[in-house]
């Protein structure tokens, strides 16, 4: 069997972005819903009830897929740490998120020692990061999005009704039609109203979609800091508690406001770090264990479809 790389976590868009750029075949291990077409094979990880169950599940998947590397995108729970000790011949890598809210996530301090490498996905709003990770620097890459800007579908000719995209927020704007599109087709949107989670935030900015961010204040990552930073940079609008959301949306719907936001996004465009992350995983896997390069994977297009 060709050895594989296991990509473990629920930040599906980020892991899919990395998976199709790896030179080795990857397997996505997740409890989250995976949108079609996913690209790599998927192993659905059921809700974990104990560290022992997680340890056993990971051990089983490592054996089934002859895994040479396990990349954990998310908190390294006790069951994961136990599995790293069980399988010392496997390269263990941690994609450690930044931008934690103050007081959140500190339980994961010190767990980097169990891994052969730790990578931090870049943040557009990194200057506003006040979380615990800023005092523990690790390898970093540019913000990771599913697609490079050149892979995004072009903006179509304007229709009769402007299009509105919603991501995790319920909203309505007079005269706008709500559409459902994937990350590659975001340029169809004339306006978005969205939470400021990692993937959504960076995908909308990268696509240049005028956006009103409505941060989830209960999320472990600091969505408010992300949204405020984008607003201060002139690249988005940020909903603040106590303000009138309907009034903010009416303001955002004005053509001149949307044009200014889209223009500012283009001026502040950032590189996609997905290929950098894939290269980092490849180098760590090659150098961290037996020195042999990862076996080549299928070649895929932007949607994950196999090519000859």
Can you characterise this structure?
- This protein has 2 domains: 5-144 and 273-288, Glycogen Phosphorylase B (Rossmann fold); 149-267, Rossmann fold (3-Layer(aba) Sandwich).
- It contains 8 helices and 12 strands.
- It has helices spanning 12-19, 51-64, 78-86, 198-207, 223-232, 245-252, 255-267, 274-288; strands spanning 5-9, 26-30, 42-44, 69-73, 91-95, 117-120, 139-140, 163-167, 177-178, 191-194, 211-213, 237-238.
- The longest helix is centred in the C-terminal third of the chain and has 15 residues, at 274-288.
- Mean pLDDT is 91; it is low at 295-308.
In CATH terms, the superfamily of the largest domain is Glycogen Phosphorylase B
What percentage of the residues does DSSP assign to strands (E)? 5-15%
Q: List the strand order in the largest sheet.
A: 3-2-1-4-5-6-7
Give the end-to-end Cα distance, rounded to a whole number of Å: 21 Å
C-alpha-based Rg, rounded: 20 Å
The assigned CATH architecture of the largest domain is: 3-Layer(aba) Sandwich
Q: Biggest sheet, open or closed, and with what strands and sense? A: 7 strands, parallel
Unreliable segments (pLDDT under 50, ≥5 consecutive)? 295-308
Helix and strand run: EHEEHEHEEEEEEHEHEHHH
In brief:
This protein has 308 residues and is α/β, with parallel strands linked by helices. Helices cover 28% and strands 15% of the residues.
């Amino acid at each position: 069997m060709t050895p594989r790389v296991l990509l473990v976590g629920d930040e599906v868009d980020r892991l899919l972005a990395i998976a199709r750029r790896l030179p080795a075949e990857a397997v996505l291990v997740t409890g989250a819903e995976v949108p079609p077409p996913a690209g790599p094979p998927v192993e659905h990880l059921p809700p974990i009830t104990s560290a022992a169950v997680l340890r056993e599940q990971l051990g089983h998947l490592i054996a089934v897929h002859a895994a040479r590397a396990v990349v954990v995108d998310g908190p390294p729970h006790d069951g994961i740490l136990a599995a790293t000790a069980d399988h010392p011949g496997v390269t263990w890598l941690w994609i450690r998120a930044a931008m934690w809210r103050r007081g959140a996530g500190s339980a994961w301090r010190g767990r980097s020692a169990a891994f052969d490498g730790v990578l931090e996905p870049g943040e557009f709003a990194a200057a506003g990061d006040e979380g615990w990770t800023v005092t523990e620097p690790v390898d970093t890459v540019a913000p990771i999005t599913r697609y490079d800007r050149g892979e995004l579908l072009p903006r179509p000719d304007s229709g009769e009704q402007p299009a509105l995209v919603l991501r995790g927020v319920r909203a309505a704007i007079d005269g706008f039609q709500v559409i459902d599109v994937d990350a590659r087709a975001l340029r169809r949107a004339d306006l978005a109203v969205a939470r400021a989670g990692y993937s959504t935030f960076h995908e909308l900015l990268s696509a240049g979609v005028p956006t009103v961010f409505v941060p989830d204040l209960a999320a472990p990552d600091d969505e408010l800091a992300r949204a405020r930073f984008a607003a201060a940079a002139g690249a988005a609008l940020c909903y603040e508690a106590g303000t009138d959301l309907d009034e903010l949306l009416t303001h955002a719907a004005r053509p001149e406001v949307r044009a200014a936001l889209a223009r500012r996004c283009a001026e502040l465009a950032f590189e996609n770090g997905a290929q950098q992350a894939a290269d980092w995983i490849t180098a760590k896997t090659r150098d961290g264990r037996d020195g042999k390069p990862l076996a080549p994977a299928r070649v895929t297009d932007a949607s994950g479809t196999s090519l000859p």
